[in-house]
Amino acid sequence: MAFLEVKNVRIAGMSAGVPKRVINNMEQFNDYSKDYDAAAFVEQTGVLERRVDNIPTSDLCVPAAVQLMNDLGWEKADVDAVLFVSQNTDYILPATACIVQERLGLSKECYAMDIAMGCSGWVYGLSAALSLMQGGTIKKALLMCGDAKRRSQYDGPLFGFAGTVTALVYDEGCSSIKFHLGTDGGSYDAIIIPDGGARNQVTPKSFELEEFDGKMVHRLESRMKGMDVFAFGISTVPKSVKQLSEHFGIDYQDADYYVFHQANMKMNNMIMKKLKLPQEKVPSCMYWFGNTSSASIPLTIVTQLGDKCQDHKRFLCCGFGVGLSWGTVVFETDNLVLSKLVEVEEDKNTKWV
Amino acid sequence: MELKDFIANFAEQFDETDVNEFKPETVFHDLEEYSSLVALSIIAMINEEYDVTLKGDDMSAAVTIEDLFNIVKSKM
Predict the structure, then answer these.
(1) pLDDT attached to residue A151
(2) What pLDDT does A214 receive?
(3) In this complex, do A226 and B40 lie within 8 Å of one another by their Cβ atoms?
(4) CA-CA distances (angstroms) from residue A140 to A10, A52, A109, A129, A246?
(5) Where residue A232 sits, what CATH number does that domain have?
(6) Closest residue of B to A271, CA-based?
(7) Which chain A residues contact residue B37 at CB under 8 A?
(8) Considering its fold, how many domains does chain A have in total?
C-alpha cells in the first residue's frame, strides 16, 4: 500500500509563471474536431482562457523561482536540491533540472533531478522531495512542476502552459505530511504520445495525421481517450481521498481547502459532489488557465488563495491523470508565502543549442 | 434496475432532443445532440446512479440505449 508520512519538512511557499499571451477559447479552435462547439466546450469544461506561447516549461519555472526565493528571503547558496517535474523538458537529454541549477546560480553541491510525471506530478514530486529531505541534510529544496506542451504546435482548447515552484524547508517538529499514491499502468495508452520514445522511433510516418477520438492528430502529439480518463477521475479520486483518511485516521471533511488537479470542470464538479465538499472550499483556476498538468494544484493555490493563507491552513490536494497515476496529500501550512503570479514573454535573445 | 428508469436518466443528459425520441431501440450515436461531451454526462450519470465505471469502448460497443443498459447491468 503506497501510504507515506513525512515528518520535519514543511511547505514554505509557492510561485507560478505563465505566458503573458492569453488565448480565448471563444475566438479560437472553431474547427477543432468534427462535433466541436466552442460555447458548449467552454460551458462544460469550464475553460475560457489559456496561456500559451513559444516558451518552454523551464522558462516559466525559472523566473517564478527567482521571485519566490526573493519573497522568502532565501539565498541561492542555501538551496540544496532542485527537482523538475514535467513531460515537456527542454531536451530529451540532459535533465532540465541540471540546466536550471546553472540558470538559477545554485551551488554545484546541489542535488538535481527530473521526474517524468504529468497531472499527478506535483503530489509525486512532493513525495519524492520530502522523502529526500526528511533525513535533515538537505535543508532547502525547490520543487518545479509544470508543462508547456511544446511537443507539437496544436494542442487543443483544454490545455494551458504553466510552470510552478514549491519551496520546501527542513523544520523539526512541524506537522507531518501524509500521502496516498497509486498507479494503473494497464491504462498506459489512455493519454499517450505514441512516437518519439524508444518504443516507436520517429519516422516520416510519425507526422502523418490520423483520426483519433474524432480529432486529426499525428503520432508526436498527445492523444487522450477522454471518456476513459473521465471515468477514471470521477471514480478513483474520491476513493483515494477516503483511503488516505481511513489509513491515517483523519476526517477529510476537516480541511480548509481542497485543491484538485484542474482536469475539467465537469470532472471536478463530479468529484466535489461525490465527496460532498462545499464549493467555497474548492478553489479552481481552470476558467483562466485551462488544464495545466502538474502545475495545476500550485497554480490554483497561488492564483486563488494568494491573500488567504497568512494564518494556519489545512489542505487536501489530489493530482490524477496520465500513467494512469494518482496521488492525494494532506498538509498544514503557517504563513504560506505565495508569490504574485509571474507573467513571462518569449525570450528571443538567449542562444540555446 | 429498470430499463424505463435507465432511459429516463439517459434522456436527462440531453437538453434539446425530444423526450419521445428515447426508446430502448434508439441508436443514440445518431442523435443530433449526441457528442463526446454528452457521452461524459452519461458516464457520470451511470457512475452516480449505478456505481458502474464505463470506458469509452463500452460507449462505442453499445448501439442502442438498451445495449448500454445491458452493459451497465452486466457490470453491476
Answers:
(1) 76
(2) 77
(3) yes
(4) 10, 31, 13, 10, 31
(5) 3.40.47.10
(6) B44
(7) 40-41, 44-45, 266
(8) 1
Q: How many domains does chain B have?
A: 1
Domain that holds residue B33: 3-14+22-75
Please indicate, yes or no, if residue A103 is contained in any of the structural domains. Answer: yes
What is the C-alpha to C-alpha distance for residues B29 and B36, in angstroms, rounded to an integer?
A: 10
Three-state DSSP at A113 gives strand
Domain assignment of residue A350, yes or no: no
Residue A7 inside a domain? The answer is: yes
Closest to A237 measured CA to CA, from A322, A122, A326, A324? A326
Q: Kindly identify which residue of chain A lies nearest to residue B15, measuring between CA atoms.
A: A40
Residues of chain A with pLDDT under 70: 1, 29-35, 153-155
User: Which candidate in B37, B60, B72 is best for mutational testing of the A interface (most A CBs within 10 A)?
Assistant: B37
pTM for the model: 0.93
Residue B5 clears pLDDT 70, i.e. is over it: yes
- The CATH code of the domain that includes B40 is 1.10.1200.10
Alpha carbon of A269: minimum distance to chain B alpha carbons (Å): 11
Q: Do B40 and A44 touch (CB under 8 A)?
A: yes
**ipTM of model:** 0.83
pLDDT, tens digit, for every residue of B17-27?
A: 999 999 999 99
